[in-house]
C-alpha cells in the first residue's frame, strides 16, 4: 500500500467535493508529522485556501472529516493552525509492511529499455603514482553515485579516463632509466604503481637539487632571487631531458613508446588490485593517449566553423567573453593539446560509443572553472548533453596531520590505508570480543568487511561538497554514526532471525491486517517507507551522504525499539511474528541502502 499516494488522491477528491475545484496532484504537500504533535503525516492546507475561501483551521477541519469518512488509510486527525495532522490506520501500516516484505528491492526503481542513460566518470588517475586518499574519496563517490542513479531507474555506464601521457609520465620514465637498475614489480616485490611512484618522487628530489644549485649560481651572477628560481626551474637538465622525452613520445619514437607501454602496464596491474580491494570497477576505460588526437581534430573542426580563433603565434583559443568568462587556450602554438582539448576528445569518443542522455564528472572542486568552460565548449560543438553536463564537485580530504603532496611522497597511500583499516577492525573486534566460534578465515573476512565499511561510510556520510578530515580511529567505532555501528545492527538482526528459525518459527510472507502495532513499530515501518524518498533525493541531488544519513537514522530507530521491546520473547505469538517481519525488513533495508554506498554488511559479527 502506498499510503501517501492514497491520501493524496483522497485529498483531491475531498477538495473537489467541498469546493468544486479540480487541483493538480502537486498541490498536495504531505510531510512527516513533527514529534511534538500527534499524528504520522501532516497535510499543509495553505495551498487550498484560495479554493475554500475559508480560514486555514476551518479548511483543515473540513478536509480531515472527509478523509476519515472516505479513506481507509486515515483513522483520525487533529488540526494545528494551517496543518492537518493525520493518524494513519493500523491496517494501512500493515499493508505497507506487507508490500515492503514482498519486494526485495523496495524503494528502488527498475531499469527498463526506455530508461535514460547516465554516464559517470570517476577515478581519473595518473600513471606516475599509486592511488591515494584523495582517489579513495573520488572512487567511493563515483561508485556510490552510480548505484544510486541505477536505483533511480537509470541505465548507468561507469567510465574512467586514465591520464597516461604528458610531462609527468616522462618524469617517472626518465627517473627509472637513470636510477632504476632494471627494477620490475617482480624483482622488487612491489606493486607496479608503487614502483613507478617511487621514481616520480625520485625525479622531484633530484630536480629540486638541480634547481637549488642553478638558482644559487644565477644569484651569484647578480640575478634577482625570483627570476633566478624561474630560470633554474626551466633550465635544469632533468626537466630538459623530460621535455625531450615527451617530444620523442609525441613523434612515436619506438624506444620511448616501448618503455612507456611497459611501465604503464605495471601501473595498470597495480591499479586493478586497488580497485578490487575497494570494491569498485568500470564498464569502459578511456586513455588520454587515445583521446588527445580526437580532441585536436574536434578543435580544428570548430576552428573551421568559426567557433574558435587562431592567434598570430598559431595557438587556438575559445573566446568566452560573451559568457562572462575569458579566453581559453585549446591548442598551443606548437600544436600540442591541453587538458581541455583532451576532455573534448574523450567526450567525442564517448558520444560515439554510447547514446548518452546525461554526463556526470566526479572531479574535485579545484576544477570547477574547467568544467564550466567544458560545458560551454561541448555545447558549441553540438554535443546534446554538453550544456547540461554535471560536474559532481567534491571537496578535499585531509588527515589530522595535514595535506598530502604526491611529488614529496607524503600522500596517504590507498593500499596502506585499506590494509590499516582492516587491521584496525580486526584488532577492535578482538578487543571487544565480537568474534565467537569463528574460523580464522571467517574472522579475517569480517575484519575486511568491517574495515572497508568503516572507511567508506566515514567518507560518504560527509556532504561531498565539503572538505573533510578523515580520522581512521573515529571511523572504527562500534557506536555512533559509523559504518561498524550499522553493520553490527544488521548482524544482530540476522542473529535473531537465525534463532527464530532454529526455534521453528516461520516468518509469513504477509501479516493479517488486524496484527497489533505499537507506536515504535509504526515508526519503524514509516522509516522503512522513507527509503524510497531517500533514494530519490540522493539521485536528484547527487548526494550519497543522504543515503548514509538514512542508514544511521533507521539503525537508531531499530536499536531504540529493540531496547524497549523483546522480539523472540514477545507476549503473544502474533506480536512475535509481527516483530520478526519488521526486523527482517529493517535488515533488508539496511543491506540495500548500504549497498548503494558500496558497503557490505556481514551476517555475523
Describe this structure as you would to a colleague.
Helix content is 56%, strand content 11%. With 605 residues, the chain is α/β, with parallel strands linked by helices. It has a 5-stranded parallel sheet with strand order 7-6-5-11-12, sandwiched between helices. Strands 1-2-4-3 form a 4-stranded antiparallel sheet. The radius of gyration is 30 Å and the shape is globular.
Strand order of the largest sheet: 7-6-5-11-12
User: Structural class from helices and strands?
Assistant: alpha/beta
Helix proportion of residues, in percent? 55-70%
The parts where pLDDT drops under 50 for at least 5 residues are 402-409
Number of helices: 22
- Tell me the Rg in angstroms: 30 Å
* Main sheet summary: 5 strands, parallel
Give the overall silhouette.
globular
Sequence-ordered SSE layout with sheet pairings:
Layout (H helix, E strand, L loop, with lengths): L2 H17 L10 E3 L8 E4 L4 H4 L3 H15 L3 E7 L2 E6 L1 H13 L14 E5 L11 H19 L3 E8 L4 H13 L5 H4 L3 H29 L4 H11 L1 H14 L3 H25 L5 E4 H17 L4 E2 L5 E4 L7 E5 L7 H15 L4 E7 L3 H13 L9 E5 L2 E2 L15 H19 L7 H21 L7 E2 L2 H4 L7 H20 L16 H11 L1 H11 L2 H21 L8 H24 L9
Parallel strand pairs: 5-6, 5-11, 6-7, 11-12, 13-14
Antiparallel strand pairs: 1-2, 2-4, 3-4, 8-9, 9-10
Helix pairs in contact: 1-3, 4-19, 5-20, 6-8, 6-10, 8-9, 8-11, 12-13, 13-14, 15-16, 18-21, 18-22, 19-21, 19-22, 20-21, 21-22
Task: For this entry, give a set of tags.
5-stranded parallel β-sheet, 4-stranded antiparallel β-sheet, 22 helices, alpha/beta, globular, 605 residues, 56% helix
Amino acid at each position: 500500500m502506498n499510503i501517501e499516494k492514497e491520501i493524496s488522491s483522497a485529498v483531491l477528491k475531498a477538495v473537489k467535493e467541498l469546493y468544486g475545484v479540480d487541483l493538480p496532484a502537486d498541490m498536495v504537500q504531505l510531510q512527516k508529522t513533527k514529534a511534538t504533535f500527534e499524528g504520522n503525516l501532516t497535510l499543509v492546507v495553505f495551498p487550498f485556501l484560495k479554493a475554500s475561501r475559508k480560514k486555514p483551521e476551518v479548511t483543515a477541519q473540513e478536509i480531515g472529516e472527509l478523509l476519515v469518512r472516505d479513506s481507509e488509510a486515515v483513522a483520525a486527525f487533529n488540526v494545528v493552525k494551517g496543518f492537518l495532522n493525520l493518524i494513519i490506520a493500523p491496517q494501512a501500516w500493515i499493508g505497507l509492511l506487507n508490500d515492503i516484505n514482498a519486494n526485495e528491492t523496495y524503494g528502488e526503481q527498475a531499469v527498463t529499455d526506455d530508461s535514460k542513460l547516465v554516464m559517470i566518470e570517476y577515478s581519473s588517475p595518473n600513471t606516475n603514482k599509486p592511488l591515494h586518499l584523495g582517489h579513495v574519496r573520488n572512487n567511493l563517490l563515483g561508485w556510490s553515485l552510480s548505484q544510486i542513479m541505477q536505483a533511480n531507474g537509470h541505465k548507468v555506464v561507469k567510465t574512467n579516463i586514465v591520464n597516461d601521457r604528458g610531462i609527468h609520465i616522462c618524469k617517472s620514465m626518465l627517473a627509472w632509466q637513470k636510477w632504476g637498475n632494471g627494477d620490475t614489480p617482480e624483482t622488487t616485490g612491489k606493486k607496479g604503481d608503487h614502483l613507478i611512484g617511487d621514481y616520480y618522487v625520485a625525479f622531484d628530489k633530484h630536480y629540486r637539487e638541480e634547481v637549488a644549485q642553478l638558482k644559487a649560481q644565477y644569484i651569484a651572477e647578480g640575478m634577482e632571487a625570483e627570476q633566478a628560481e624561474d630560470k633554474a626551474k626551466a633550465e635544469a637538465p632533468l626537466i630538459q631531458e623530460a621535455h625531450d622525452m615527451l617530444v620523442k613520445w609525441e613523434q612515436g619514437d619506438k624506444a620511448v613508446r616501448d618503455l612507456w607501454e611497459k611501465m604503464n602496464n605495471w601501473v595498470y596491474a597495480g591499479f586493478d588490485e586497488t580497485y578490487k580491494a575497494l570494491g569498485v570497477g568500470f564498464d569502459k576505460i578511456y586513455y588520454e593517449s587515445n583521446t588527445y588526437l580526437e580532441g585536436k581534430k574536434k578543435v580544428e573542426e570548430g576552428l573551421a566553423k568559426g567557433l574558435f580563433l587562431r592567434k598570430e603565434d598559431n595557438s587556438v583559443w575559445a573566446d568566452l567573453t560573451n559568457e562572462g568568462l575569458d579566453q581559453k587556450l585549446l591548442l598551443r602554438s606548437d600544436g600540442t593539446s591541453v587538458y581541455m582539448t583532451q576532455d573534448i576528445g574523450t567526450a567525442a569518443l564517448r558520444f560515439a560509443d554510447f547514446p548518452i542522455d546525461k554526463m556526470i564528472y566526479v572531479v574535485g572542486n579545484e576544477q570547477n572553472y574547467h568544467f564550466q568552460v567544458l560545458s560551454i565548449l561541448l555545447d558549441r560543438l553540438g554535443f546534446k548533453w554538453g550544456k547540461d553536463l554535471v560536474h559532481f564537485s567534491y571537496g578535499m580530504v585531509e588527515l589530522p596531520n595535514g595535506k598530502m603532496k604526491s611529488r614529496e611522497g607524503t600522500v596517504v597511500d590507498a593500499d596502506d590505508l585499506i590494509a590499516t583499516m582492516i587491521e584496525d577492525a580486526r584488532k577492535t573486534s578482538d578487543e571487544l570480543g565480537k568474534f565467537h566460534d569463528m574460523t580464522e578465515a571467517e574472522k579475517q573476512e569480517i575484519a575486511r568487511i568491517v574495515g572497508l565499511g568503516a572507511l567508506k561510510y566515514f567518507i560518504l556520510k560527509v556532504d561531498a561538497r565539503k572538505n573533510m578530515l578523515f580520522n581512521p580511529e573515529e571511523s572504527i567505532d562500534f557506536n555512533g554514526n559509523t559504518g561498524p555501528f550499522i553493520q553490527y545492527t544488521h548482524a544482530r538482526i540476522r542473529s535473531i532471525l537465525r534463532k527464530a528459525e532454529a526455534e521453528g518459527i516461520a516468518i509469513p510472507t504477509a501479516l493479517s491486517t488486524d496484527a497489533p502495532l505499537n507506536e515504535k513499530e509504526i515508526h519503524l515501518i514509516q522509516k522503512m517507507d522513507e527509503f524510497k524518498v531517500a533514494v530519490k533525493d540522493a539521485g536528484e541531488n547527487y548526494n550519497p551522504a543522504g543515503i548514509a544519513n538514512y542508514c544511521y537514522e533507521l539503525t537508531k530507530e531499530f536499536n531504540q525499539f529493540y531496547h524497549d521491546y523483546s522480539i523472540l520473547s514477545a507476549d503473544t505469538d502474533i506480536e512475535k511474528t509481527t516483530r520478526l517481519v519488521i526486523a527482517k525488513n529493517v535488515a533488508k533495508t539496511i543491506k540495500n541502502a548500504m549497498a548503494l554506498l558500496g558497503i557490505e554488511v556481514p551476517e555475523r559479527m
